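Journal club side-thread
Mid-discussion, someone asked how the predicted structure for our own chain would compare to the paper's figures. Pasting it here so we can look after the session.
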Amino acid sequence: MTRPGDVPPDFLDRLRPICLGLPEAYEEPAWVGVRWRIRKRTFAHLLTIDPDHQMAYARAAGTDEPVCVLTFRSPTDEIHALLAHGDPFFKPDWGADVLGMVIDDETDWDEVSELLTESYCRLAPKKLIVRVAASTPE
């Protein structure tokens, strides 16, 4: 990591196949960290927060130490359920359907895959959502 917001390469290596495996999804640098988008809509954003630089993220995540976080879109009922679960989930103060989670060595990557696929489907055009549904095993 060389600048504020950079993320550990191991986490990028885990997220890239999940995000880039979705139809027409692409990766780009964000204002800080890395984000994945469908069309011009961000469905996942990974960054390392430093309370001295990303105060809003640090407050939302309840940390005063640098941590890697992932934000994504989720339905309201699922946001409430995940927040009730507690750590690693947190609710940023922006966007009613935005949820965050701390990413670390204990992260459940199967759960992340499900959450990011759902986030993508909240923002993607219907014709792409059909392609995701068709490729998902039952």
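Post-session note: The first strand starts at residue 25 and ends at 29.
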